[in-house]
Design a protein that fits this description.
Rossmann fold; six-stranded parallel beta sheet; 11 helices; 14% strand; alpha/beta
Length: 252
């Protein structure tokens, strides 16, 4: 199969979810006739884990191979959290593919020493205990008070997280712990950029952390969305789709 598309939106999901976290964006883009690509990282959703070690760079290469196989010439990535780390690497190594950037609830900084310790502790626990405790922790840390009250949303998030394989989680935690610092890239980014933070994200990427990306990129547009924490596209789809479509109409 080969598809030729001059431009498409690329959805890059957060850890430990899968492409289904953007289900509300799929409908919105289909309604506007905007082509998009959505994929699972290896070990998440329906994508089997990769053999050997995994790094952010290896995940980027995996994503680019999928884009190339579809014959897409330009992408506008929408990356939540870990998706943002892949976007920075796309800019670093595959700049010619990019037509714009949408960073969501993510950060430019590399992992702190304390953060690395936490991630490696999690790796040890997942190997011993499995993934259930991690799913419970992520559900607590990544969602806003409004989302926690919505049992349908919480169940949907749990189902997505439970599809992640133990192997995928362990390898990706290591990749996240060892990711590079991207703050040096901010001043070099010369593409239309939208940066979205969840107003209620207190534990993972607070608004003041996300805002630094917008402050570092000339001309970037920054938005804080209410009733969302670390997963704005899923938690407040109406608000997110409004700002996303406005941006995409200009860029595409």
């Amino acid at each position: 199969m080969r598809v030729h598309l001059p431009k498409a939106v690329l959805f890059l999901h957060a850890f430990p979810l899968n492409k289904e976290m953007f289900v509300h964006q799929f409908k919105a883009l289909e309604g506007e006739g905007i082509p998009y690509i959505a994929l699972d990282y290896p070990g998440f959703g329906y994508e089997p884990p990769l053999p050997g070690e995994v790094s952010v760079e290896r995940l980027t290469d995996f994503v680019v191979s999928k884009i190339n196989s579809l014959g897409v010439k330009k992408i506008v990535p929408v990356g939540d959290s870990m998706g943002g780390y892949i976007m920075f690497d796309l800019f670093r190594r595959y700049r010619e593919l990019l037509g714009g950037l949408v960073f969501v609830a993510t950060r430019a900084e590399g992992e702190t020493e304390e953060g690395k310790k936490i991630r490696y502790n999690l790796i040890g626990r997942v190997k011993e205990e499995g993934t259930s405790f991690l799913v419970n922790t992520m559900l607590e840390n990544q969602t806003s008070p409004a989302t926690k009250k919505d049992q349908g949303k919480m169940n949907h998030l749990r189902c997505m997280m439970e599809k992640a394989t133990k192997e995928g989680i362990v390898k990706t935690l290591r990749a996240l712990a060892e990711r590079r610092d991207n703050t040096d890239l901010l001043s070099q980014i010369d593409l239309p950029t939208l940066v979205v933070a969840g107003k209620d994200d207190e534990k993972v990427t607070p608004p003041e952390v996300v805002r630094k990306i917008a402050e570092g990129i000339k001309g970037a547009h920054y938005i804080e969305l209410e009733n969302s924490a670390h997963l704005p596209p899923f938690e407040n789809p109406e608000g997110f789709n409004g700002v996303l479509l406005e941006f995409l109409r200009k860029v595409l």
